[in-house]
Design a protein that fits this description.
Elements lengths: L2 H25 L4 H19 L7 H24 L4 H7 L3 H12 L6 H21 L6 H24 L4 H8 L4 H11 L2 H9 L6 H27 L4 H4 L6 H13 L5 H18 L24 H5 L1
Membrane topology: Multi-pass membrane protein
Family: Belongs to the EamA transporter family.
Pfam family, one: EamA
Length: 315
């Protein structure tokens, strides 16, 4: 994986890490299921009108939309709405990386190199250390499981993206956004109710309105269009197991930003776990060292035998 592609993957990690602050701000105003529908509907409408349909098999487009778009954010927003902190959410969601590696090896027969396996294992240990520090009491178990389910859905979306091999990954990302709005709106109407949806669209005087709208704009422009567009481009050009470990940098950004902006504390154990995550990503994504080519030693020169008799040679 070239260095410039690795830098792009890091840019995506920063965008997605800050995305959790934007989601937290939006959830202060909008109900979670409706927020998912609204987020993708605002992208889907201009996409259908202006963007050509990507030339990929429909099953991979729908699979990407359901995995990455619908179920990932359904469980993520749900988990955050019922108490999962933004920083911890950014951490748990990155379980998508080991999920992706395992699913790719099972269903795509992608070879897992010892180096990549070791790096993912180290990063997973780091995630476990941070998660252990933050999971305090049974009340946090349900939100944790919800966000973990979102991570599994993201991994499924990663595999669909890799299989789609879209000529234009940005078009694939945009058309992925066409899948979530209708099912999420239907779910919102059933679970959250029309009254709650209407209140979120008409109450513009509450102090959380402006931050919620700014957060929504960030998730659309930066989180989805920029971040997911670059991510899809990378997934189309490299094995899923090579790109996915970069997502484990997201909690480092997310938890740091949550500490600064939201006052979420970071313990020494969390810092140690974050360091393991970064180290694991570095090991998993470092290219193998090129083989050192050595010049072969010259063979000794063979002198032609002297055709004269032994006696003549001695004389």
């Amino acid at each position: 994986m070239p260095t410039r592609h690795r830098l792009l993957a890091v840019v995506v990690a920063v965008c997605w890490g800050l995305n959790f602050l934007a989601i937290d701000a939006s959830l202060q105003h909008f109900p979670p299921f409706f927020l998912v529908a609204l987020r993708f509907a605002l992208i889907a409408v201009p996409t259908v009108l202006l963007v050509p349909v990507p030339q990929v098999p429909r099953k991979w487009l729908v699979g990407y939309g359901l995995g990455f778009g619908t179920f990932q954010f359904l469980f993520l927003y749900w988990g955050m709405a019922v108490g999962m902190p933004a920083g911890l959410s950014s951490l748990v969601l990155q379980a998508s990386a080991p999920f992706t590696v395992v699913l790719a090896s099972l269903f795509l027969r992608t070879r897992l190199t010892p180096r990549a396996g070791t790096g993912v294992l180290v990063a997973v240990i780091g995630l476990a250390v941070v998660g252990w520090q933050r999971l305090d009491g049974p009340a946090a178990f349900a939100p944790f499981v919800l966000v973990l389910a979102g991570a599994l859905a993201w991994a499924v979306g990663n595999l669909c993206t890799a299989q789609a091999k879209a000529p234009n990954p940005l078009h694939l990302t945009l058309w992925m956004s066409v899948v979530p709005p209708l099912p999420m709106l239907a779910l919102s109407l059933v679970v959250e109710g029309p009254r709650r949806i209407a209140d979120s669209l008409t109450d513009w005087h509450s102090p959380d309105t402006v931050p919620a709208l700014v957060g929504l704009a960030y998730t659309i422009v930066i989180g989805t269009l920029l971040g997911s567009g670059i991510w899809s481009w990378l997934m189309a050009r490299h094995p899923a197991g090579t790109v996915a470990p970069f997502s484990m940098l997201v909690p480092v950004v997310g938890m740091s930003a949550a500490w600064v902006a939201l006052g979420e504390t970071v313990s020494r154990g969390e810092v140690a776990g974050a360091a393991l995550v970064v180290g694991g990503v570095r090991v998993a994504t470092r290219p193998p060292r090129p083989a050192v080519l050595t010049q072969p030693e010259p063979e000794p020169e063979l002198r032609p035998s002297d055709p004269r008799p032994r006696a003549a040679r001695a004389g």
